[in-house]
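Lab manual, section 2.4: Encoding a predicted structure.

Procedure: take the sequence of the chain (351 residues), apply the prediction step described in section 2.3, and record the output as C-alpha cells. A sample record is shown.
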Amino acid sequence: MRLGSKMSEVTVFGAGIFGLSIAWACLGKGAEVTVIDPHGPGAGASGGVLGAMVPHVPENWNKKKAFQFNSLLLAKDFWSDVDAVSGISSGYGRHGRLQPINDLAALERARKRAETSETLWEGLASWDVVDCPQRNDFAPIATTGYAVSDTLSARINPRKALESLSKAIRLKGGRIMRRGSPRGKIVHATGVAGLIELSRETGRSVGGAVKGQGALLEYSVPGHPQIFADSIHVVPHDDGTVAVGSTSEREYSDPIGTDAQLDRIIDLAVRVVPALKDARVLERWAGLRPRALSRAPMLGNHPVRKGEFIANGGFKIGFGMATGVAGVMADLVIDGIDAIPEEFRPDASFS
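Recorded output:
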C-alpha cells in the first residue's frame, strides 16, 4: 500500500474454502478484511472428510485444466504460509496418486497420456505408467499389473485446513463473524445457498446442490499416495485415518443424512484396497456441494449485484482450485486486474 493511501476494505460472505482463501489473499494485498458466515467456517461442503486435490488428465488441454494445474502447483507454498502463521497443520501433503489399470485399452490410454504430460505439465509434475506397487499392504488391485502414478495429486485435511486458515486470517488482522454489515468491496462465496438465490433472482437455473457422502476410516499409512479406482477416492491422512468417497446425488430426501449409498462406497473402497477390510469406520459424512451449470467455478463480477463479486461452484474441486481462485479474485477485487478465464465467468452458466 502506498504511503498515505487508504486501505481497501473487503467483505467476504461465506466461510468455506473459497471465501476464506480469497480473504487470505486480500489480506496479503494489504486490505482490511471481514468474513461473514452465519454458520461459521466450514459449515457446508468444505467441512467434509475427503480432501483429495487431484488434476485433470493431461490431454485435450484447455484453460480450465491449465488453471487447475497451476492451482495445484501453488498449493504447497499457500498452505505452508498459512500453517506458519496459524501454528496449525492443515494436513497438506503432495504425495501423489495411484490409479490401477485393469484393461489393455486403459493401459494404452494411460501410456499416451504419459507422453502428453511431459509437454503439458512442463516437467513440473509427472504422469507415469508404473508397476502397481505392493508396499505396506496398502495397494490397489490391478489386473494388468500396472498403475498410473502422478506426482501432482495432493491431499489435505479439510477441517484442519479451515481451522488453520481461519486462525491465520485472524492473526493477520482479519475478522470472521457470524453476522455484520458489509463494508467496502463485497465478494459472495456462499456455496449452494448462493447458487439457489442467484437462480431465483435471475429466473434461470445457474446451478445448485449435488449431495456427496464420504467416510473416515481408522487406518494409518501417512505419506502413502492416495488411490483412485472404480470412481472411488481412497485418501490417507497423516492423523491415522483414511478418507473414502464419494457419491454424487442429484436426487435426495435428506441433505445431510448417510445411507446405503455410503455403505456401497465403503464396500467398494475395501474391494479396491483390501487392507481396509477390518478398518473401523470413525465417521460417516454427507453434505451438499455447489455445482454451477457450467461445471466450472463461477468467478468474477456478480451478474446481479452491480459492483460486487462472486466466487462459487467449487463442487468437488474446491480445495484443489482454491489457491488459483484466491489469487485471481484478489487481483480483481483489490487491483482491478481481471485474469479470470472465460470458462469461469458467470456468463458461462447463463449460456
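Check your result against the sample. The radius of gyration is 20 Å.
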